[in-house]
């Protein structure tokens, strides 16, 4: 059990640091949605801008998931748990998303790593839910402040 923690916790820490960086980047762009250097500027106009802001946030979060899944899959490969990266990535993705199909499992020696990755995934999915909620809130706030100009405004 201790060996599992010594191997898994550094990967989990790396995932947390990477996710914090991604969240900081998302916050950096949508918090400044309508302000620069403390001055209010005209809100960006139109559906396309709203779509791009939300789409970029979702894309960055998904990219973060894929990288983290790949990191865990790489660890499983290094430990000799899987012969093919595709199988390792599949197991990692199912575990990260906490689906837990059970069609592929880790050996008894390393099975606690699956629980660590699942905990990592739950945390990351929760963080991204908060980030997306904040991003949607910003878009709604700016749409409410935007003068009504019909459907194209």
UniProtKB/TrEMBL annotation:
Q: What is the lineage of its organism?
A: Bacteria, Pseudomonadati, Pseudomonadota, Gammaproteobacteria, Pseudomonadales
What is this protein identified as? Potassium channel family protein
Q: Does the keyword Hydrolase apply?
A: no
A family per Pfam: Ion_trans_2
Under the heading InterPro entries, the entry gives: K_chnl_dom (IPR013099)
Keyword Transport part of the UniProt annotation: yes
Potassium channel domain span = 67-136
Q: Which UniProt keywords apply?
A: Ion channel, Ion transport, Membrane, Transmembrane, Transmembrane helix, Transport
* One GO BP annotation of this record: monoatomic ion transmembrane transport
Q: So where does this one cross the membrane? A: 48-78, 90-110, 122-140
């Amino acid at each position: 059990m201790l060996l599992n923690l010594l191997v898994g916790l550094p990967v989990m820490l790396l995932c947390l640091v990477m996710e914090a960086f991604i969240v900081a980047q998302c916050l950096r762009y949508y918090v400044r949605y309508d302000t620069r250097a403390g001055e209010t500027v005209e809100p960006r106009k139109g559906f396309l801008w709203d779509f791009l802001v939300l789409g970029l946030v979702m894309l960055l979060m998904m990219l973060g998931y894929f990288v983290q899944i790949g990191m865990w899959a790489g660890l499983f490969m290094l430990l000799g748990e899987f012969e093919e990266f595709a199988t390792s990535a599949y197991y990692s993705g199912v575990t990260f998303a906490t689906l837990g199909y059970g069609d592929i499992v880790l050996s008894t020696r390393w099975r606690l790593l699956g629980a660590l990755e699942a905990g990592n995934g739950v945390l990351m999915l929760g963080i991204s839910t908060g980030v997306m909620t904040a991003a949607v809130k910003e878009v709604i706030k700016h749409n409410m402040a935007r003068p009504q100009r019909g459907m194209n405004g």
